[in-house]
Amino acid sequence: MISVNDFRTGLTIEVDNGIWRVMDFQHVKPGKGAAFVRSKLRNLRTGAVQEKTFRAGEKVAKAQIETRRMQYLYANGDQHAFMDTETYDQIELPSSQIEYELKFLKENMEVQIMMFGTETLGVELPNTVELEVTDTEPGIKGDTASGGSKPATLETGLTVQVPFFINQGDRLLINTTEGSYVSRA
């Protein structure tokens, strides 16, 4: 058991028969009444995000999540194959379970697979991924880095806003948390 006063971003807990990851939290001490913790949680089974308030000092169960390093192999219809890089065991996950992560996954990419006992919860991406621009309007001479943005489609099908100087074929670093442009690779 862990106290909600010890919450930190990335912590996994068991609440209401679900496994949740703490995305954000805030300790609130109102002038009148008891202190509480306002949190933003993501369900690791469904991907749903929920805001939940706990009384200060309340105890919740800490979920023992194990991560295994795996390599994304290929898509087979609605199933996506991953291979453990140490044991060479393969697992398949449905598209519905990793819908958000598919925007950043490309073949042979290494990711962390989250496991709760024998149950596979999903994919944990690195903070940034390197992707190639497959389609964007050409840059025009005189455009600067600080002068606005244009849409660019990446090799995984994700569309992000990029500066005007980015061209087709450029390799970019993309933030996987926000799905936004970081820099050229």
Automatic annotation (TrEMBL):
GO terms (molecular function) for this protein are:
translation elongation factor activity
Q: What's the chief localization of this chain?
A: cytoplasm
- Report the SUPFAM superfamilies cross-referenced here: Nucleic acid-binding proteins, Translation proteins SH3-like domain
Give the Translation elongation factor P/YeiP central domain ranges: 67-121
Q: Give the metabolic or biological pathway.
A: Protein biosynthesis; polypeptide chain elongation
Q: Can you give the residue ranges of the Elongation factor P C-terminal domain?
A: 129-184
Enumerate the UniProt keywords alphabetically.
Answer: Cytoplasm, Elongation factor, Protein biosynthesis
Localization terms from the record: Cytoplasm
Q: Which InterPro entries match?
A: Elong-fact-P_C, NA-bd_OB-fold, Rib_uL2_dom2, Transl_elong_fac_P/YeiP, Transl_elong_KOW-like, Transl_elong_P/YeiP_cen, Transl_elong_P/YeiP_CS, Transl_elongation_fac_P
Give the matching Pfam families: EFP (PF01132), EFP_N (PF08207), Elong-fact-P_C (PF09285)
Which HAMAP family is this protein grouped with?
A: EF_P (MF_00141)
Described by its record, this protein's role is as follows: Involved in peptide bond synthesis. Stimulates efficient translation and peptide-bond synthesis on native or reconstituted 70S ribosomes in vitro. Probably functions indirectly by altering the affinity of the ribosome for aminoacyl-tRNA, thus increasing their reactivity as acceptors for peptidyl transferase.
Q: Which family does it belong to?
A: Belongs to the elongation factor P family.
The protein in question is named Elongation factor P
